[in-house]
Give the backbone structure.
Amino acid sequence: MTKKFICLILGLVLLMAAFGCSNKSTNTDPDQAAILTLIGQNADMTGSDVLSPADQTLSKAAVDSIKLWWRQLLARGRIIGWGVRQPADSTHPFPSITVTLIDSLEGILHIVGTDSSDTVHLEKPFTEVATRLLYFEKRGLDATRYRGWVLAGVSGIELVSVPNTAKIDSVKIESGAASQTVRADSILAITLRPDIIEFAKGDSVNVTVYTGDATDSVYLHAHIQMGTLPSHRRKKLANNGDGSFSGYIFIPSHANFFGRWHLVVDVLKGHVLASDDLNDYDSRQWGLLYRVGVPD
């Protein structure tokens, strides 16, 4: 584990201490212990593993000499920030609490390319911080399951490199029946579970990303239909030349494809894949939840 990663963890611990944080898997507070169990049992909405594990086999980068690139995760740490418990009131019928998940991720960006005479494999170390908010309500008595707590809402997830200049201004996703625009000031806003955008199997979904920088490299990670089975893949979005990027996917039509999934927008500054500087890593990713075939 590098010194930079250790310092990052220590810094996050100090930063979040005032909010009541824990990075332990056990807790003497029975309500917090119940909520930790819920977090562990809802990985589809609470995890930070939202990028395609098979993305090294997919699309070429913008630079012709780059043949493959992928991220390898080496280490992770999690800090849990506990908000102040709120009593029920006229607008909130149940007691509630908002929990912040901060995951520190360390890994290697692999870039395989060719020059005039040889194949080159670059390994660029990276550190990223992933942030997501969860909203819990206490809808039952202490004697009931999870002491009455339920995961009632969730934000998107934002992964930011350290250091960082890459940005995302907004992302618009739309099908024939549903649409949603997420902006930089709303990516971490709580969405109640019934309000998570819903797509049907086989839907064509258009995605438009606005970064304001036409030199960025922008990709989409999502489940798509590959032959007869769904597969999680990475797709390069078309550069519109004005700081926006667009593309589309088809939601898998397989009978067993249902649940909650992420569309992930992955922005790399344009120089990252082209540069042979091993310290050149600059990225921002947004993971946006959608659901197929679950009412919530």
The longest strand covers residues 119-138. Residues 3-16 form the longest helix (14 residues). Confidence is low (pLDDT under 50) at residues 13-19, 54-64.
